[in-house]
Amino acid sequence: MRLPLALSVMLAAASGAAAGPVMDSVAHVPVSLPQAMDVVMSTIGSKITHLEFESRNGVPTYEFVVETKAGNYYVGVSGLTGLVSEVDVIVDDDDPRWTALAKVAEADATKTATASYAGEVEEVKRLLLADGTAAYEVDVEIAGAGGEYNVYVDAATGLLKLVNVEYWELGETIPGDDD
């Protein structure tokens, strides 16, 4: 029997130290994973299908993929404050909101990302960011680096916007993955 992601994570959290590396990596973060999930469910609601734990500018962040009737969203919750730190929309390449903003080809964005972060490209996603811009998220696995690098490339200018270090992820494939 396959349990929904939210239930699986809650059961792992409730079982304590035996939960393994997923829970161990967040053991010293002030905001617990169940607390972060509660924030997402009370703020956005709907269905959590994917979870990542990452560092955003040095801040531990839980990043959830939430499916709603209106679309699929990345929702970031600060592991320090418990506040929602981002809400980005995950879109397909033919979404009119994306096509209105994106001027850079995916191949060029991938080259930009791998020029600074050489490694294997795991996936590329298209995001409408909370700041009103569009970006490719190019996920690059670098051997021995201790995590995957989520490299954001501005879809209008082709410049690097942001880089997050992702330590682990759980759940279903993220909508919009190219895999």
Structural class: alpha+beta
Largest sheet: 8 strands, antiparallel, barrel
Morphology call: globular
CATH architecture of the largest domain: Roll
The CATH C-level name of the largest domain is Alpha Beta
SSE sequence, one letter per element: HHHEEEEHHEEEE
DSSP, total strands: 8
Helix content: 10-25%
Q: First CA to last CA: what distance?
A: 25 Å
Strand content is: 35-45%
Number of domains: 2
Number of helices: 5
Protein described:
This protein has helices at residues 5-14, 21-24, 33-43, 96-101, 106-116, and strands at 47-56, 59-68, 71-78, 84-91, 120-128, 134-141, 148-154, 160-171. The longest helix is centred in the first third of the chain and has 11 residues, at 33-43. A hairpin with a 5-residue loop joins strand 7 and strand 8. Strands 1-2-3-4-5-6-7-8 form an eight-stranded antiparallel beta barrel. The protein is of the alpha+beta class and 179 residues long. It is globular. The chain has two domains: 1-89, Nuclear Transport Factor 2, Chain: A (Roll), CATH 3.10.450.40; 92-170, Roll (Nuclear Transport Factor 2, Chain: A), CATH 3.10.450. It has five helices and eight strands. The protein is 23% helix and 40% strand.
Secondary structure layout plus pairing:
Blueprint: H1 5-14, H2 21-24, H3 33-43, E1 47-56, E2 59-68, E3 71-78, E4 84-91, H4 96-101, H5 106-116, E5 120-128, E6 134-141, E7 148-154, E8 160-171
